[in-house]
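Example for tutorial group B:
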């Protein structure tokens, strides 16, 4: 009896083993992908922030396709701070695997809501220290532009420049930080800074008219409020033949003259890589804050023509993109 039982057990073991092995020419059964949830939230929609979002998603999908099944939850506050805070509270209660917050106000809202319970990756923040977006469960990618090089770029195109107007939203920490740094840079270069605060989009037309009365050019540092209403700024400035420059090269396609600046899609890719590291179990304290790795030169030929600026052949050859945007 004992011998018969042993023989039956051995037979079943052999059958099970043979069934578990892939036949010649067949692939082994795929290991089920792990389901993960990633929130990507942004304060407002404009080209730069959208590029960060797309870069993060593309990088995550590229890296995770054989290991994770990622469910993305995309939210947008439509430039409303109260909505941004409500969105952050909602995401905190959902407890996703990672939250990617794009822009200063979104990241501040998420940081306050999650209180370290969910890994937070920020994107497109000029100065996370000044904005107090720090902590044990926070990392991300900054978008601090090379301001001095950008002002020198403007000077090269406008050798007679004396007064430069800067429009900014004082409600954004990144904008206040930018104005403080630009104040010192312009002083060093013997240029006059005309800083004009804009607290809501309906105030922008009046601010642009004021700028065109006193400045030879307008400069916009990374400011989400201004960027979201950029076309109205361009329309007024072009009518006065005042060139507009921006630290955000994505705005060149919407009417700015040109700039050498950060590639925001690349910032998104860096943020996506950081999120993937977290999914792989890398401790967040081992994922340092990173900075932009590449700059690109965008030029707008139509904007230059309207405002009386000429691009040299060498500059046009150097450009990564030359656009003729409808203005």
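The residue assignment follows.
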């Amino acid at each position: 009896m004992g011998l018969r039982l042993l023989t039956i057990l051995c037979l079943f073991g052999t059958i099970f083993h043979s069934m578990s092995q892939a036949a010649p020419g067949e692939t082994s059964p795929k290991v089920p992908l792990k389901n993960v949830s990633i929130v990507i939230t942004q304060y407002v929609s404009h080209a730069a922030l959208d590029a960060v979002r797309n870069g993060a998603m593309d990088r995550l999908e590229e890296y995770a396709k054989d290991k994770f099944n990622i469910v993305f939850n995309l939210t947008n506050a439509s430039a409303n701070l109260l909505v941004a805070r409500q969105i952050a509270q909602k995401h905190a209660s959902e407890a996703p695997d990672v939250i990617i917050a794009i822009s200063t106000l979104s990241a501040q809202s998420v940081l306050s809501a999650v209180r370290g319970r969910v890994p937070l990756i920020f994107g497109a923040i000029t100065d996370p220290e000044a904005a107090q977006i720090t902590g044990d469960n926070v990392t991300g990618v900054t978008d601090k532009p090379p301001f001095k090089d950008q002002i020198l770029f403007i000077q090269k195109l406008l050798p007679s420049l004396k007064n430069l107007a800067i429009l900014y939203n004082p409600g954004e920490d990144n904008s206040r930080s930018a104005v403080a740094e630009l104040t010192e840079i312009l002083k060093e270069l013997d240029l006059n800074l005309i800083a004009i605060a804009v607290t809501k989009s309906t105030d922008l037309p009046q601010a642009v008219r004021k700028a065109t009365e006193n400045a030879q050019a307008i400069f916009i540092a990374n400011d989400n409020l201004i960027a979201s209403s950029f076309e109205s700024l361009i329309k007024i400035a072009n009518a006065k033949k005042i060139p507009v420059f921006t630290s955000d090269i994505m705005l060149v396609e919407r009417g700015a003259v040109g700039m050498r600046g950060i590639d925001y899609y690349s910032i998104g890719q860096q943020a996506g890589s950081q999120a993937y590291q977290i999914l792989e179990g890398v401790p967040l304290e081992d994922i340092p804050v990173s900075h932009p790795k590449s700059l690109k030169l965008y030029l707008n030929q139509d904007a230059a023509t309207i405002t009386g600026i000429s691009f040299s052949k060498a500059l046009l050859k150097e450009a990564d993109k030359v656009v003729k945007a409808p203005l």
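The chain has two domains: 34-143+264-286, 147-263+295-323. Compare this with the pattern of hydrophobic and polar residues in the output above.
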